[in-house]
Amino acid sequence: MRIGNNVLVAGARVAGAACAEVLLDRGAAVVVYDRADSERMQALAARGARCVVADAFDPALLDGVEQVVLSPGFPPHHPIAEAAREHGIEAFSEPELAWRLREPGAARWLAVTGTNGKTTTTTMLAAMLETAGLRTAALGNIGVPLVHAANGPFDVIAVELSSYQLHWSSELAPTAGAVLNLAPDHLDWHGDFDAYAEAKAAVWRGGRAVVNLDDPAVVALAKHTDAHVTGFTLNQPEPGQFGVALGYLVDYTGDEPVQICSVDDVRPAGWHNVANALAAAALARQVEVGHNDIGDALRKYVPEPHRNVTLVEHEGVTWVDDSKATNPHAAAAALASYDSIVWVAGGQLKGVDVDGLVAEYAPKMRGAVLIGQDRALIADALARHAPDLPVAVLDGGDDAVMTEVAARAAAMAEPGDTVLLSPAGASYDMFRSYAHRGDAFAAAVRGLIGGDEG
């Protein structure tokens, strides 16, 4: 059964509501469950969905249900997922439903997953496809819901997929899929690292795998795939690989190496983004996008916000917003990009150890300003590895704390330093999203510098 006639949709935010709308359009009987009432719930009820608002899920809601569409945030151990398993009911999430909705002639999917760099790579890929004259969009974890675009006016779409979304998939099989990197993240959701990595490997289900040869965990994962592997590396590529040679991104999958563009053309700066660009290029070549189009797209690419973006340089100090660094692996990429740093960090570590990150990068730090739920864990790590480092641990519980963050960081910074917001943790303890956190930081920096200049 590809799509059932009686479906429970769990969660009525953007993706869940979109799924319910599409299912209603198909004539399915739809039950929508959410813990909170909303305008979306009311609109779905007006369209004929049975909408149930309750703190606790009642398994009786599964009576007569053939399939369950779960919002990606629902982990395998959630009562709804467990109840579906016990009743033998198939469960999946919005990207899987979108895949099943595809009609003959629908757009091909090029998919991107990994611990970090997904949105940057996906939007780079979409830029390459567009430059080549293909009808495209960057979708998945970004953009409009996939279920609304499954049969849209596209030739190829660039799809960002999270480990959550891939876990809740079974038929989804992109033309090609890239795993950018793997580091411990979302272990509270998946249970352990092996389950997290296994979910990521589903992106290779279509038979063509783009693999980061510099990441041992990705290489180990790729040993278990039957897909055809194209590797990318920041080193000089061997035949069959993408890589870097003489300061250029290079495609060596043909008879001779082909230069794509200069390393200096890649934005945002940083070797991790060169790796992202190589992954995007490898995917674009899977649908025969030309090298000139790939290079032109990278030269014109405008970085997404909150990803190692310089806000301002003032009195010799550079202020950088990398709020998207929601885990230590992402923060490491930013910390590696600068020589002398005042680190602004903290949030929800999601069970991931930060000790290795601190041990490696504390020698580059002028000071640290810590906020958020797990700030004490980062402070303890800094005390172990850099006992003489100035550290400010702030107790504010909302975005107003950023004013003090900027002031404390400015007091620590010296000319030539970078004040880097790269939190290494999720944002939901204090902010609506990582974007809200980055915006609050940027506003505080503007307020501080404006005050200095006035």
Structure, described:
By secondary structure, the protein is of the alpha/beta class. The protein folds into three domains: 6-92, Rossmann fold (3-Layer(aba) Sandwich); 102-300, Mur-like, catalytic domain (UDP-N-acetylmuramoyl-L-alanine:D-glutamate ligase, 3-Layer(aba) Sandwich); 309-453, Protein-Tyrosine Phosphatase, Chain A (Alpha-Beta Complex). It contains 17 helices and 20 strands. The chain has a nine-stranded mixed sheet with strand order 7-8-6-9-10-11-12-13-14, sandwiched between helices. Helix 10 (216-222) links the parallel strand 10 (208-212) and strand 11. It starts with 5 loop residues before the first strand and ends with a helix. The mean pLDDT is 93. Residues 112-284 form the Mur ligase central domain. ATP binds at residues 114-120. GO terms for molecular function: ATP binding; UDP-N-acetylmuramoylalanine-D-glutamate ligase activity. Cell wall formation. Catalyzes the addition of glutamate to the nucleotide precursor UDP-N-acetylmuramoyl-L-alanine (UMA). Belongs to the MurCDEF family.
CATH architecture of the largest domain: 3-Layer(aba) Sandwich
Q: Which strand order do you get reading across the main beta sheet? A: 7-8-6-9-10-11-12-13-14
Low-confidence stretches: none
Q: What name does the CATH topology of the largest domain carry?
A: UDP-N-acetylmuramoyl-L-alanine:D-glutamate ligase
Backbone structural class: alpha/beta
How far is the first residue's CA from the last residue's CA? 67 Å
Question: Mean pLDDT, nearest integer?
Answer: 93
CATH class of the largest domain: Alpha Beta
Overall form: globular
- How much of the sequence lies in strands comes to 15-25%
The tally of structural domains comes to 3
Q: How large is the count of helical segments?
A: 17
What kind of oligomer do you see? single chain
CATH level-4 homologous superfamily of the largest domain? Mur-like, catalytic domain
Rg is 23 Å
Total beta-strand segments: 20
Largest sheet: 9 strands, mixed
State the helicity in percent bands. 25-40%
Pathway: Cell wall biogenesis; peptidoglycan biosynthesis
Domain Mur ligase central: 112-284
Catalytic activity: UDP-N-acetyl-alpha-D-muramoyl-L-alanine + D-glutamate + ATP = UDP-N-acetyl-alpha-D-muramoyl-L-alanyl-D-glutamate + ADP + phosphate + H(+)
Keywords: ATP-binding, Cell cycle, Cell division, Cell shape, Cell wall biogenesis/degradation, Cytoplasm, Ligase, Nucleotide-binding, Peptidoglycan synthesis
